[in-house]
Design brief:
Among the domains are: 53 residues, no CATH class; 76 residues, Orthogonal Bundle (Helix Hairpins), CATH 1.10.287.470; 85 residues, Elongation Factor Tu (Ef-tu), domain 3 (Beta Barrel), CATH 2.40.30.170; 74 residues, Beta Barrel (conserved putative lor/sdh protein from methanococcus maripaludis s2 fold). 31% of the residues lie in helices and 32% in strands. The protein contains 5 helices and 23 strands. The chain has a 6-stranded antiparallel sheet, with no helix packed on it. A 6-stranded antiparallel barrel has the order 3-12-15-14-13-16. α2 packs antiparallel against α3.
Length: 414
């Protein structure tokens, strides 16, 4: 019995050791299982990109250029006589009308000259009149042979000389009156006046520039067109068919001002291949000012209603490869294909494609930097005029999710 108890005592530590070893083995097996877990497989397909179908529609062909606004009439106001400025009758930058007096030059010396020449002209006329009367008497005496022919001829010559003197005196009088009128410097056109270059009290000489006036009711937009534009619009403009031109200022969106092509130069510059053109615009609100930069949009030259069918894409879809433009076309296998394209002008926010694409082909319009030629992508179809910067509309729950939510609400209520 004593031996049995001793043997039992020896077995207890051994059993505890075996149990501990079993726990360690189980723990190690769990760790090996966790460490040997197979990693998740990569997601199928390539990076997500936004794609859109190439659009085909009727457009009015336009071209865009850079230009400058120019005044139709611009006049430098100059002095035509010498004298002291006694009055400046306008506010700088204000609008003036034709005939408004802008400056007054001291008129007193010119008024005195008018009176002097007026008296001289009257005296010359009187002498000429007397000579004419004497010549008439001499004609009667000559008929009666009371005077010699020589005496008559002398009186006739004297009369002609005095008449010439009278005309000269009258011309001097007219010139004096003209100079007197020049002391009132008037605006020759209606428009906006600049600042006064010479102020009151200054002595000026003839031809001195006093200020300037530019017309404001209408204005020019001048720009340089290319050879293709000249070939399309020159014939139309020469026939008298109106060619629509629109402009937009630097702080404006689009081309809100509409006018007509007024002038196409008679030659192209061989150095630049450009031709000078000019359009006329109404300026009733006085918003257009000479010298401003303007974006110019010119229609196709066949009248504003002439339209053509064109393929259109977003400018965001176009990449640049050195001197070429390209897009990525998505094929049936969702792989990107590099495609060089030839682009045209902008129309209603989309770019005209002249060569390289077909209607209905899907191209990448957002995520271009994640695409490589021949690589697979995950296309997400959007509209061609899709704006990725616009805030997304709140997502609506699908029908299945709505049913689950309704069932959960019903269970909670019960």
């Amino acid at each position: 019995m004593k031996n049995v108890q001793q043997f039992s005592t020896l077995l207890k530590p051994l059993a505890a050791s075996l149990a501990l070893a079993g726990l360690v083995a189980v723990s190690l097996a769990g760790c090996d299982s966790a460490n040997s877990k197979v990693p998740d497989a990569p997601a199928a397909g390539g990076p997500p990109v936004s794609t859109a179908a190439v659009v085909e529609k009727q457009i009015t062909e336009t071209q865009e250029f850079s230009g400058r606004l120019e005044a139709i009439d611009r006049v430098e106001i100059r002095s035509r006589v010498n004298g002291f400025i006694t009055s400046v009758n306008f506010k700088p930058g204000s609008e003036v009308k034709k005939g408004d007096v802008l400056f007054v030059i001291d008129p007193r010396p010119y008024q005195a000259e008018v009176e002097r020449t007026e008296g001289a002209a009257a005296s010359a006329r009187a002498k000429a009149g007397l000579a004419k009367l004497e010549l008439t008497r001499s004609e009667k005496l000559l008929a009666e042979k009371a005077i010699a022919q020589r005496e008559y001829d002398e009186k006739a010559a004297d009369m002609k000389g005095l008449e010439a003197d009278a005309r000269a005196a009258q011309a001097s009088y007219d010139a004096a009156k003209l100079n007197l009128s020049y002391t009132r410097v008037e605006s020759p056109i209606s428009g906006r006046v600049s600042k006064a270059e010479i102020t009151v009290g200054n002595l000026i000489d003839a031809t001195a520039i006093l200020t300037s006036v530019v017309s404001t009711d209408r204005i020019y937009a001048s720009f340089d067109g290319d050879e293709d534009t000249y070939l399309r619009v020159a014939g139309t403009a020469q026939k008298g068919t109106p060619v629509t031109v629109k402009i937009g200022l630097a702080n404006e969106t689009g081309f809100p001002h509409e006018g007509k092509l007024e002038f196409v130069d008679n030659r192209l510059d061989p150095a630049t291949g450009s031709v000078r053109m000019r359009a006329t615009f109404a300026n009733t609100d006085r918003e257009l000012v000479p010298g401003l930069f303007a974006r110019v949009q010119l229609d196709g030259g066949n009248g504003p209603k002439a339209q053509s069918t064109a393929l259109l894409i977003s400018d965001r879809a176009v990449g640049t490869d050195q001197s070429r433009k390209f897009v990525y076309v998505i094929g049936a296998d969702n792989k990107a294909e590099y495609r060089a394209v030839k682009l045209g002008p902008n129309s209603d926010g989309l770019r005209v494609v002249r060569e390289g694409l077909k209607v209905g082909e899907k191209i990448v319009v957002n995520g271009l930097q994640r695409v490589r030629p021949g690589a697979a992508v995950t296309p997400q179809l959007v509209a061609m005029d899709f704006d990725p910067t616009a805030p997304a509309a709140p997502a609506k729950p699908e029908a299945k999710d709505a049913k689950i939510a309704a069932k959960a609400a019903s269970t909670t209520k019960e």
